[in-house]
Amino acid sequence: MKTTISLFLIAITVVASEPLVPINELGTGTFHGFIGGLYANGSNEPHAAHAQALRERRARIQPLDAEGKPSATGRIVIAGVGASVCRQIFAQLERRGTETPGIHPAITFVNCASGGADVNKITEDRYWQRAEQAFAARGVSARQVQVVWYQSDELRDQRDDFPGRPQRLQAALAQQMKLIAQHFPNAQLCYHSARHTTAFMPDDDGKAKHAEPRPYHVGWAVKWFIESPENGGHGTPLSTWATYFWTQADKPRADGYQWSSAMNVKDGVHLTEVGQQRVAKELCDFWSRDAFASSWFTDSVSHTSTKAISGSSP
Predict the structure, then answer these.
(1) Phi, psi of 122 (to 5 degrees)
(2) CB 240 within 8 A of CB 50
(3) Residue 40, CA distances (Å) to 35, 74, 215 in order
(4) Three-class SS of residue 128?
(5) FRET pair for 109, CA 20 to 30 Å: which of 35, 66, 224, 242?
(6) For residue 274, what are the β-bridge partners?
(7) Three-state secondary-structure class, residue 116
(8) Could you give phi then psi for residue 25, rounded to 5 degrees?
(9) What kind of fold does domain 71-308 have according to CATH?
């Protein structure tokens, strides 16, 4: 019996020591037996039913008035929903996002994020009351929100088990999307980037709730939610990937993406001014170039034409 327990503990230790690999580098490889890739079947690109759903959703995006009705003088609002890092990024987008070359003139960024707003606090009424204040300050309404960028985590969950932790967060994400649909009834798309690594956190910082592997696990929660039947159902926005953030500390990924300690302040979680500007630009670059986003984010294709070709590829 003692031998059996010892072997079991050894097996647990081996599994726990499996290195963290960026999800988009795994492809059809596995992490703890789970296939990688940002999308199903080890792919890093939308395909099959998800790609078709993206075509359908992008075709619906057009300038809306304050009542949520189509209007040539309306707005296409992109709202940031999440916690403090999301708030930092959207503060930059509110200031500089509309300077992006070729951006559609109807685009308006609204920072609805709030410091400390994990998935639990986002369910509170006061979170959404602050969001309403953000809309008023920008001269738009919640009914004009058609695109969301979401970034948060479950900071009360102190367990680091895999796949348990990301599975619990996946369930929380499903509820978050229902909340977004409730408050933003015209939201079509919700973009996710997961979290940057917190490998640069000081050992004595005391912020265990942000320590690895928890930021890494967020990526798996997002991936699994995107692949789930719940994604986009019951009037909720369709979730999909924007840029995927996580890296092995400052090691360059296979796609060339690299993070560094210079992007973080001393706590290893929040972003420096340089980091904020960089990530804001990365998101705008993504929306400008992505085959499923450029038609509504840029002014190069009219929305009338977009609707006419919504069934075509990509």
Answers:
(1) -65, -20
(2) yes
(3) 8, 36, 21
(4) helix
(5) 224
(6) none
(7) coil
(8) -95, -20
(9) Rossmann fold (3.40.50)
Q: For residues 189 and 236, is the Cβ–Cβ distance under 8 A?
A: no
Task: Extract the tokens encoding 71.
Answer: 């209007």
CB 162 within 8 A of CB 174: no
How does pLDDT run across 44-91, given as a tens digit for each residue?
999 999 999 999 999 999 999 999 999 999 999 999 999 999 999 999
Q: With contact defined as beta carbons under 8 Å apart, do 145 and 199 qualify? A: no
Q: Which residue has the tokens 């190069």?
A: 300
| Tokens encoding 124 | 């509170």
| Residue-range domain boundaries for the chain | 71-308
Partners of 111 in the β-ladder: 80
CA angle, residues 236, 241, 244, in degrees to nearest 5? 145
- Per-residue pLDDT at 311 exceeds 50: no
To the question of pTM greater than 0.70 for the whole model, the response is yes
Which pair of structure tokens corresponds to residue 204? 């004595």
Residue type at position 211: A
Confidence of residue 6 (pLDDT cuts 50, 70, 90): very low
Q: Are 118 and 85 in contact (CB under 8 A)?
A: no
Q: In angstroms, rounded to a whole number, what is the distance separating the alpha carbons of residues 70 and 61?
A: 9
